[in-house]
Amino acid sequence: MIDTDATVREAAKKFGVGRNTIYLDITERLKEINPLMQAEISLILKSHKSEMNIRGGISTKK
């Protein structure tokens, strides 16, 4: 997600797991394993969340 700016949905598809699993891994599990990486990914998640309605509108338009 850091290198590609992938969304949670894109990461879930790549790893063959659900979105909830990715979200849980990022918000809970990664915090214990690598707090610096978790902080960086959290910023990406916040960015994606702020763009969510824009992305949704584009998808609906398509």
Describe this structure as you would to a colleague.
- By secondary structure, the chain is mainly alpha-helical.
- The protein has one domain.
- 79% of the residues lie in helices and 0% in strands.
- The protein is globular and about 35 Å long.
- It starts with 7 loop residues before the first helix and ends with a helix.
- The mean pLDDT is 86.
Distance linking N and C termini: 24 Å
In total, the number of strands is 0
* Shape verdict: globular
Percent in strands: under 5%
Helical content stands at over 70%
Low-confidence regions: none
**Rg, Cα atoms, Å:** 12 Å
Query: How many separate domains make up the residues?
Result: 1
Task: Describe the largest sheet.
Answer: none
Let me know the average pLDDT.
86
Instruction: Give me the strand/helix succession.
Output: HHHH
- Secondary structural class: mainly alpha
Q: Please report the number of helical segments.
A: 4
Pfam families: SpoIIID
InterPro entries: Spore_III_D
Protein name: Stage III sporulation protein D
